[in-house]
Design goal:
Elements (H helix, E strand, L loop, with lengths): L6 H4 L5 E6 L8 H7 L2 E4 L5 H4 L9 H13 L2 E9 L9 E2 L2 E2 L2 H19 L3 E8 L21 H6 L2 H13 L4 E6 L5 H16 L6 E4 L2 E2 L5 H12 L4 E9 L14 H9 L2 H20 L4 E6 L36 H9 L2
Parallel strand pairs: 1-2, 1-11, 2-3, 3-6, 6-7, 7-8, 8-10, 9-10, 10-11
Antiparallel strand pairs: 4-5
Helix pairs in contact: 5-7, 11-12
Catalytic activity: Endohydrolysis of (1->4)-beta-D-xylosidic linkages in xylans
Protein name: Beta-xylanase
GO molecular function, one term: endo-1,4-beta-xylanase activity
Length: 350
């Protein structure tokens, strides 16, 4: 382990430092979690496929493992994504051979959230209640809610009211935790405006929504000005902000937009030079400088993973022409040692 100070302790006056964790390898991260983190988010273990693969059949073994480890380490949990269009069994949308009615779907959401809250409330300080319900691109001719929300099975059967049902159920069963909406590309001006409309709708309906989860996955160079504008826009809605899924691809350090990647970009990406890997650290320093400057509204910064030996980015292809390569997108290396930027981040927090 490193002899430098704790990242989490150094940032106590600013915000919590969190990481997404997985049941299959959380034990290998216990030392680094104990030293540098004071929040954890289950990566997939609280989604429907893991917790309720069939209606009424709950499977909590993998989730329990994360919560047990978190309790042992004295770390509270940001619970993630009980309502998401992915990793949800087809049973949610069916009533026998017919489509489920909105009322049946709301009942199922309520029962699912009730089960999660009854089991885990004591350890949870915030929930990503609904994840990624806003569309990335507006289809030609789309109007009204169809120009705002993702055309998921939830939306096709319920319209936007499934979001309302989820927040009302979570408020009922977890009254002491903060409730968040969570999404990616949240700094894109057009999508940001759609997210704002979702949040305003919830507020107009009398739903409790405490915060906005800004995922912050970076595959291209961050637009720091848009990040600042986005923080201000969401904060002006009266929301607390969490950075929820932060990681930085090697491609983000290329200094330009890599979508679609050129042949030169692909060659460079495959090479993964030490210089390009180091640029990821430079981006973290700039991002944290911004996060610190808005610590009056930001309460937590969570990386999507703990260390570079296990990251979803290794298997993710952000564009058809991009190769699958080893990525180094986190603050700790493949041996779980802090990268050079961690000490710089700690010194910057003094």
């Amino acid at each position: 382990m490193s002899n430098i100070l704790s990242l989490a302790k150094s940032y106590e006056k600013y915000f919590k430092i969190g990481a997404a964790v997985a049941a299959h390898n959380i034990e290998s991260y216990e030392d680094v979690l104990r030293e540098h983190f004071n929040s954890v988010t289950p990566e997939n273990e609280m989604k429907y496929s893991e917790t309720e693969p069939e209606e009424g059949r709950f499977t909590f073994e993998r989730t329990d493992k994360i919560f047990s480890t978190a309790r042992k380490l004295g770390i509270k949990v940001r619970a993630h994504a009980p309502v998401w269009h992915n990793q949800t069994g087809g049973w949610m949308y069916k009533d026998g051979d017919h489509d489920a009615s909105p009322e049946l779907i709301y009942q199922r959401i309520d029962a699912h959230i009730k089960a999660l809250c009854e089991r885990y409330n004591d350890d949870v300080y915030a929930w990503d209640v609904v994840n990624e319900a806003v569309t990335d691109e507006v289809e030609d001719g789309a109007q009204g809610d169809a120009a705002i929300y993702r055309s998921s099975e939830y939306f096709k059967l319920c319209g936007a009211d499934f979001i309302t049902a989820a927040f009302r159920a979570m408020d009922k069963y977890s009254p002491n935790a903060q409730l968040f909406y969570n999404d990616y590309n949240e700094c894109d001006p057009k999508k940001r405006e759609r997210i704002v409309r979702l949040i305003k709708r919830l507020k107009e309906q009398g739903c409790r929504i405490d915060g906005m989860g800004m995922q912050q996955h970076y595959f291209s160079c961050p637009d720091y000005d848009e990040l600042k504008r986005s923080i201000e826009v969401y904060a002006q809605l009266g929301l607390r902000l969490h950075i929820t899924e932060l990681d930085v691809s090697i491609m983000a350090g290329f200094g330009h937009n890599v979508f679609p990647p050129s042949e030169e970009d692909i060659k460079r990406l495959k090479a993964s030079s030490p210089e390009d890997i180091a640029r990821v650290e430079d981006i973290y320093l700039k991002l944290f400088e911004i996060y610190r400057s808005y610590s009056d509204v930001i309460d937590c910064v969570t990386t999507w993973g703990v260390a570079d030996d296990y990251t979803w980015m290794d298997g993710f292809v952000p564009h058809d022409n991009a190769p699958v390569v080893k990525q180094y997108p986190l603050l700790f290396d493949i041996h779980h040692a802090p990268k050079a930027c961690v000490e710089k981040l700690i010194n910057a927090a003094k």
